[in-house]
Amino acid sequence: MKLSRRTLLGTAAAATMPATARAQSATIKIGVLTDLSGPYQDLAGPLAVSAAQMAVDEFASKGFKVEVVSADHQNKPDVGASIARQWCDQGGVDLITEVANSGVSLAVAGVAKEKNKAYLPCGPATSDLTGTACTVNTVHWVYDTYMLARSTGGAMAKAGGDTWFFITADYAFGHALTRDTTGFVEAAGGKVLGGVKTPFPGTTDFSSFLLQAQASGAKVIGLANAGSDTVNCIKQAKEFGIKQKLGGLLVFLTDVHALGLDLCQGLLLTESFYWDLNAGTRAFSERLKPRAPSKRPTMVQAGTYSAVLHYLKVANAMGAAEAKKDGAATVARLKATPTEDDCFGKGIIRADGRKLHPSYLFEVKKPSESSYAWDYYKLVATTPAEEAFRPLALGNCPFIKA
Amino acid sequence: MFMILGYPAPLLFGQLLLGLINGAFYALLSLGLAVIFGMLNIVNFAHGALFMLGAFVAWGLLNFLGINYWAALILAPLIVGFFGVILEKTLISRLYKLDHLYGLLLTFGLALVIEGLARNEFGSSGVPYPIPSVLQGATNLGFMFMPIYRGWVVLASAIMCLITWLIIEKTSIGATLRAATENAPLVQAFGINVPRMITLTYAGGVALAAFAGVLAAPIYSVNPNMGANFIVTVFAVVVIGGMGSILGSIVTGFGLGVIEGLTKVFYPQGSSVVIFVVMVIVLLVRPAGLFGKAA
Amino acid sequence: MKLGAAILGLCGAIAALVSGTFFMFASEVVGSIKASGLVTADPATIKILAMIVAIPALLAGGILFAYPLIGGILFFITVELMAFTMGFTSVTFAPIMLMAVASNLAVLCAQRERATPIIFLGFSIHQYLALQIMVMLITVSPFVLYPVFLMKVLCFALFACAFNLLIGYVGLLSFGHAAYFGMGGYAAGYAAKAWGWSPELAMLFGMAAGGLLGIVFGWLAIRRQGIYFAMITLALGQMAYFFCLQAPFTGGEDGIQQIPRGKLFGLISLQSDMAMYAVVAVVFLAGFLLIHRIVHSPFGQILKAIRENEPRATSLGYRTDSYKLVAFIISCALAGLAGGTKSLVFGIATLTDVHNAMSGEVVLMTLLGGLGTIFGPVMGALIATAMENYLAQAGAWVTVIQGAIFIACVIAFRKGVLGVLAEKLKIQL
User: C305 with C348, same domain?
Assistant: First the structure.
C-alpha cells in the first residue's frame, strides 16, 4: 500500500514539471492539428506539418525560437477540442493551425476563443467560421464552402445543370456546402430535388446513396463531401453505370491523383492554389519537394505554409513576448497587415477573419493533354479576390456591426 | 423507368441487391460465429477483426506477391485459419473452464489488438483493392443495372453457406462434430481427439470470416474498421436467429439483409436500426431466437 | 466578501489545528498502547480504541472537505476566492488526512492477526483507509496535476463504478453501457446549451436520461442471461448509437459543441477549472458513496445472492428480475450522470461517448482495476485514462495496448490490480 502511494506521488511530480517549465519560455509555439490517419491525411496530414515546418525554417534567423508540434484529431470534434485545450493549458501553444475538418474546426474555434490564442484554420471548409461562429481569434485562410459553391456550383448551374441531388457528408462541412450550393443553384433558376446524409467518417460503400440519387432523376449529383469519400463516390458511380453528371464540389489535387485522369477528365473544380499555376507556386512546390519528393502540395498544405509565415512575420514585428500575451490582439495585428507569399500572392484579411485571394475554376485535363507528372488542371476562370468570398454583410458574424 | 408500389424499379431492385450482399456477409459471419459457439461455447468477438484480416491478407498477397484474387480467395482463409489455430492453442484454450464471459472479453481484446495494428500500419481510411478483371463492368438487366462483381458476391457466399451446411449436417465429420457439441467426454471416449477437433473448428469458423473478408475487399475497400462496423450487427443477427443454429444463422443473415435493403427504399433513416428493432421484437416474442431451442 | 473569506479562513485554520492535535494525540495513544504490550492481551480494547481514532478522523475529514464547498456556495461568488479556499483547505487538509491515515495504520498494525471490521457506511477499516487516501488525493491532486485531466478521470471513475455495480455485484456484463453514458452527455449538454439550464440541473437531467434509457433497455435485456445478456446490451447500445447519429438534437458527427459550464445554482461561475473540479469531485464522491451504500444495503445483499446462485435466490422468494432491473436502472442513471458531468467539463458531447468502443473501455477499466472491488474501477479509470492521455501521440498503439491489457487480464490476473493487491494483503478493497 505504501508502495502504491509513493509511486502515485512520484508520477504526479514528474507530470507537473514540464508544464510549469514550458509556460515560462518566450518560444513561439505552433500547433498543427490535422488528420494524420483518416480520409484527409493526403490532402492535409503530414505534408501540412512539413509545410508549417518549412515556413518556420525559412524564418529561422529572426532571433526568436519557434517550435512546431502536431497531433491527429482523428476527425472527432471531442478529440480535437481536448488536444487544443491541453495545448493551450499545458503545452504553451500560441497558434493553432490547419484543422482539416469543419466539425473539429468549429469545436477548436471555441477553445481558441476561450483560451485567447490565435487560430488560423486552413483545411476546414465551412463558411460558418467567418459567419455565425466567427470569433476575434480566428482567421479562415484558404477557401470556404461559399467560395466553392459560387465558383463550381454556379458554373455547373449555368451550364444547364438545373436539377440537383446532394450526397452530403453528415457534419458541419457537408451541411454548409449543401446549404451554400443550394443558394447558388436556386439563384440560377435551378431546383434541388433531394439529398441524403452519409455518416462520416466510416462510409466506404456509397452505392445505396448513389442509387437513391439516380432514382431522383436529377441532372446533377452534388457530392458535398471530400477526400476519400469523393473518390469512392466517383468510382462507385462508374461501377453502377450512373449517367448523371457528378458535381464534385470539393475535389483536391490528391483526389484527382488517386482517381487518375481517365475517371476525372472534364471534371470542373475550384481551388485557390494549384502548384503549377504561376512562377510563385512553382517555386514554392520546388522548395517543398525535398520533404515529400513524390507529392505535390494541395491548397490546404500551401495554405498552412502561408498562414504560419504570415503569423511569424507579424509576431516578429510585435516581439515574441508581446505576440504570446494576447491572442486576440495578435490576430488584430494579423488583420491589419497585408499578406504576401509565393502561394497566394498578395492578399488581405477582412475584419471578420476572412483571408481574401482569388479563386480559380479548373478543368481536369484529358490523359492525352497531361505532359508530365501531376500535370492535371487547366485554368477555366478566375474570380477576383473581392468577389470570390461571401460579402461581409451577409455573414451574420456576431461582432461585425453592419 | 417503370414503377413498383410507387417506387422506381431500379431503386427497389438495386437496394434489394445491396441488401442481399450485406445479407451474404451477415450470413457468412454469423455462420462462423454459430459454428464456433456450438463447439467452443465462446462468442468470438474477434470475428470482425479476422474478417478484416482476411481482406488485408488478400491485399498483401496481391501487392507483395502478385497473387491474384482467385488464389487469394483460397489462400487468405487458409492463412487466417492457421492464425486461428495459433490463437486457439495459445490463448482461447485456457478459458474453457471459466465463465463464458471471459471468452467474450478475451476475444474483444484480440479484436482491439488486431484492429489497432492494422490502423497503425494502414491508417483509418485503408487501401483500395481492385475488382478482378473478369468480374468488372455491369450488365443491364432491363429493370436495373447490376455490377457483375456484386452478383458474384451473393452467389459465392450462398454456395459457401450451402457447403458448410452440408458438411455439418450430411457428412460423418459433421456428425462427430455435432456429437462432440452435445457430449464431448463421450466422443472422446470413442477415441476421437476432441481438443484437436475444437482447434480445427475454430480455424474453420475463422476461415469463413476471412473468406467473407476477401469477398468484401473490392466493395468496401480494405480498411481497419470494416469488421468492427459489421460485428455488432452480426451479433444482433445471431440473437435473432438463435445462437448455435447453423440453418438459423444462414436464413436470418440473408433475410435481415433483405429487410435492411428494403427499409432503405421505404424509410432510409431507419435502415441502420431496423435490424435492432427486429431483434427487440423477436426478444419479446421468442426470447430464444427464431431457430433457437428454449434454454 | 473579503471579510467572509477571512472568517472562513480563520475557521479552517482553527479546525485544522484542533483536529490536527487531536490526531497526533490519538496516534500517540495507539502507539503507546502497542508499545506497552497490551495488544495481544485484549482485542476488544483495541477495537474500541480504533473506533475512538476513526470517528474523529471521519468528522474532521468531513468538516474540512465540506467547508470550502459550503463556504463557496454561501459567500464566494468569484472564482478566485473559491480557488483560494480550495487551496487553503488542501494545504491544511492534506497533513491532517495523512495523520488520520497514519493513526489508522497504527491501529491496523496493532491488531495484525485478525482484521476486525470497523463499520462506517459499510466500509471495513481497510476500505476506510483507502477511502481516506482517495479523498486526500482527490483534494490535493488538482494543485499538482492538470485539472481537466483529473476531471476526466473522475467522470470515468464514476462511470466505471456504476458499471461495476452490475458486473461486480449482480454478475451482469452489460456491453453497451456507453449508450447511457453518452445519452446522459447529450441530455445534459442539450439542457445546458439550448434551454440554458444551470449545471446541477443539467447533470440531473443527464442522470434522468440515462436512467430512462436504462428502464427501456434493461426491461428488454434482462430476459436473457449470461452471454446473451452481453450481446443484447451490445446490440441495443449500437441502436442507441445509430439513433444519436440521426436524431436532430445531437448534431450528428459534430456533436453538441460549446456547451456552457454555466453557474452552479445560478450563482457560482464554473468557468475556472478549479471551480468545476470541486463540483466534479463532489459529484463523483456522492455517486461513489451511493453505490457503496447500495452494495451494503439489504438490497445489495440480495443482488449478490442473485450473482452467486440465481435459481436459489428465486426459490427463496425473491423476484430476481425486478432486482436485476432496479440495479440496471441505477447503474444506467449513474452512468448518465457521469456522462452529463463529462460533457459539461469539456463543453462538448459527441458520438465518441455513445460508440461501442466506449462500452469496451469501461469494461477495460473495471476489469483492470478489479471486478467487484469498491476501489478497483477508480484505479482502473485512472490507469486507463492516464494511458490514453500520455500515449496520445502513439496513435493507434493505444488501442493495441488496451487490447493487450484485456488479454493479460483475462489470461493472467482476472482479479485486476486492486484485486491482486487485496489478495496479497489479505484484505478486502
Answer: yes
Q: Nearest 5°: CA angle at A318, between A316 and A322? A: 110
Do residues C81 and C164 share a domain? no
List the single best residue of A9, A79, A82 to mutate versus C (max C Cβ within 10 A). A82
Q: What is the pLDDT of residue C69?
A: 53
pLDDT tens digits for range C17-45: 445 444 444 554 555 555 555 445 455 55
Q: What is the pLDDT of residues B5-56, one digit of tens each?
A: 667 777 788 888 888 988 999 999 999 988 888 888 888 889 999 999 999 9
**Angle C89-C90-C93 from CA coordinates, rounded to 5°:** 75
- Per-residue pLDDT of C68-117, as tens digits, reads 555 555 444 455 555 555 555 555 555 666 666 665 665 555 555 444 45
Q: Which residue in the set C242, C360, C367 is minimally distant from B272, CB to CB?
A: C242
Residues C58, C156, single domain; the answer is no
Give the pLDDT score at B283: 81
Long-range CB contacts (within 8 A, 24+) of C364-367: C364/C402, C364/C405, C364/C406, C365/C156, C365/C159, C365/C160, C365/C163, C366/C160, C366/C163, C366/C164, C366/C167, C366/C168, C366/C416, C367/B105, C367/C406, C367/C409, C367/C410, C367/C416
ipTM: 0.85
Domain count, chain C: 2
Q: Which residues of C touch B110 (CB under 8 A)?
A: 403, 407
A119-159 pLDDT tens trace:
999 999 999 899 888 999 999 999 999 999 988 888 888 88
Average pLDDT, stretch A380-402?
A: 85
**Shortest CA gap C348–chain A (Å):** 6
Q: Using a cut of 0.90, tell me whether the model's pTM lies above it.
A: no
- Which CATH number belongs to the domain containing residue C227 in this structure? 1.10.3470
Of residues A180 and C45, the one with the higher pLDDT is A180
Closest residue in C to A79 (Cα) is C352
Q: What is the Cα–Cα distance from B123 to B109, expressed in whole angstroms? A: 20
Structural domain span for residue C71: 2-141
How is chain B split into domains, by residue range?
9-285
Just give the CATH number of B9-285. Answer: 1.10.3470
The listed CATH number (3.40.50.2300, 1.10.1060.10, 3.40.50.720, 3.80.10.10) that belongs to domain A146-271+359-388: 3.40.50.2300
Residues C205, C343: Cα–Cα separation, whole Å: 12
Mutate to test the interface with A, among B21, B22, B124 (most CBs of A within 10 A): B124
C58 phi and psi, to 5 degrees? -60, -50
Model pLDDT, residue C121: 63
d(CA C171, CA C229): 11
Residue B265 pLDDT grade (very low, low, confident, very high; cuts 50, 70, 90): confident
**Among A38, A201, A205, beta carbon nearest to B219:** A205
d(CA B200, CA A219): 55
Contacts of A211 in chain B (CB under 8 A): 10-11, 14-15, 18
Contacts of C145 in chain A (CB under 8 A): 12, 15-16
Subunit contact C347:A110, Cβ cutoff 8 A: yes
**pLDDT for the residue numbered C111:** 52
Quickly state the pLDDT bin for A166 (edges 50, 70, 90).
very high
Task: Write the DSSP assignment of C164-193 as a string of letters.
Answer: HHHHHHT----TTTHHHHHHHHHHHHHHHH
Q: Are residues C116 and C164 in the same domain?
A: no
A27-143+278-357 carries CATH number 3.40.50.2300: yes
Whether the CA torsion C417, C421, C424, C429 is positive or negative: it is negative
Report which listed range, A57-71, A183-197, C267-281, C316-330, is most confident. Answer: C316-330
Give, in order, the Cα–Cα distances in Å from A373 to each of A257, A367, B142.
10, 11, 42
